[in-house]
Amino acid sequence: MRNKVLEALCDEGIFLAPEAADFVLNQDNPLGYVRTAIESMPQLPLVITLQDLRDVFCEKGDARVCPATAAPEPRKLCRGEVKVLKDITGNSTCEGNIIDFARYFNDRFQTIKRILVRRRELVGCVSIPKALTLDREVKFIGLVNEVRTTKNGHKMIEIEDEEGKCPALILKSSSLIDESVIQDEVIGIIGKTSKKGEMIIVEEIVRPDVPITGGMAPSDSSSTVAFISDIHMGSKTFLRDRWLNMIKWVRTEGANIGLNYIVVPGDCVDGIGIYPDQEEELEIEDVFEQYHALAELMKDIPDGIQVVMQPGNHDAVRLAEPQPALPDQIVEMFDSSIMMVGNPCYLQIEGRTILSYHGRSMDDLVNSVQGLSYNLPLDAMREMLRRRHMASLYGGKTPLAPEKKDYLVIDTVPDIFVTGHVHGAGIAEYRGIRLINASTWQDQTSFQRMHNFNPDPAKVPLVHLGTGKCSIKAF
Ligand code: D5M
Ligand code: FE
Ligand code: ZN
Asked: Which of 107, 114, 115 is nearest to 43 (CA)?
């Protein structure tokens, strides 16, 4: 029965993801069920997932045929009020083969497409092959395969959806010509099909973006969260005196401002072999010794403060993102109350959603988005939010692991978005979201001097979880 039904669907060009197939086969009339579902879909996905069925039937409020929302991933509860809402820790399945990559990009496409189809500007969007046949304004959603400049100075984007791909041209004379389109981002395009029907002339680009909201409505929380990034323990330029000043301040003033949480967004230690000749800049040359030394330093943080630590590109876990939490061997060195999470990670603290991401992809964004630089991390973070993705570009400096789900998609809009990595310190707001870049405790290294990179160290951004008020304390 199972194979017969799936074969019949296959003959009609309809493919079901395994979970969707299980659900469909439990229906009284599986074929009829799928055909009804397809009629309500704006376009036929390459592979129909359980979510696609939910989108169709749950919207109609028909509980009998609506697949129950997947059980939420087990929430890892820890001391105090910190919950991990989402990270890769314990959920990694990928082997990095071609099928994994196809599934990974499909998940990215589908997740961001679901955000884009709700955009008013894209009402009536069609598939790419369909768009090429229409002789009027067309709208479609696709994943960018390639972006290049033609010899005449136009910008050519090759864009793909589940059904096909097409070239989309931004004319040199268009006001969009300076718009930075990044390879592997998912965008909506509004345009006209060329006379021969072989390409689309782009008139508008629609980004998923985050909704405009008032941001953090005041709550009764009296807690403050501090962000302390890029400690780089083990580096010769680790700023011990300024760190000790900061700890002294935490111990004396912390209670007065309700400092109950410290989040560390990566590069906890300097690591080894991260860049050429790094050993010359290391005070501690053994990575385990670096973590030991850090664990000792952290002991001075008062017990009442919940510390959450995330890895970065200098830490001892796989480099490919999403990165899982530090391994047990290292976790055991630290006080058991310290919470280790993956990178990126969605946290919930006292009712506020915090997205913490080390920020490696800023190395790629500064090269692919016009006007960005290492001095403007908050602008780079805005670009991530506009694209609803933390690291769109595959094949640059940010290695990506093709997990089943794309953990780098910003599917939930956070209250606070924090990054480290660029060793800058800043706070800003974008559409109600607090943006934080969380400084460093490492002074300029000779490697950074060689690259003309100037850090802004020993600063602690603080956010009051009740009022949403942000400030920076310098040490
Ligand atoms: O990265 C810290 C910062 O160092 C990073 O955000 C920019 C700067 N950096 C690192 N490598 C380079 C190169 N090759 N050119 C320019 N700037 C660079 P961290 O992860 O702490 O090493
Ligand atoms: Fe760093
Ligand atoms: Zn880093």
From this structure: 114
C-beta of 374 in contact with ligand 1 (< 6 A)? yes
pTM of the full structure? 0.84
pLDDT digit string (tens) for 72-122? 444 444 445 799 999 999 999 888 788 899 999 999 999 999 999 999 999
Q: Report residue 421 as tokens.
A: 């990595």
Question: Is 97 part of a structural domain of the chain?
Answer: no
Is residue 430 a contact partner of residue 419, using CB atoms and an 8 Å limit?
no
Evaluate: CB of 314 within 6 angstroms of ligand 1: yes
Q: Give CA 25 to chain center in angstroms.
A: 35
Q: Could you tell me the residue range of the domain that residue 48 belongs to?
A: 2-65
Top mutation candidate among 374, 449, 452 for ligand 1, by most atoms within 8 Å of CB: 374
Q: Where are the beta strands (DSSP E) in 26-86?
A: 76-77, 82-86
Domain count, the chain: 3
- For residue 122, the 8-state DSSP code is G
Identify whether residues 250 and 344 lie together within a single domain.
yes
Assigned domain for 173 exists = yes
> How far, in whole angstroms, is CA 16 from its chain's centroid?
27
Q: What is the DSSP string of 158-192?
A: EEE-SS-EEEEEE-TTSTTTT--PPTT-EEEEEEE
**How far does the centroid of ligand 3 lie from the alpha carbon of residue 438, in Å?**
11
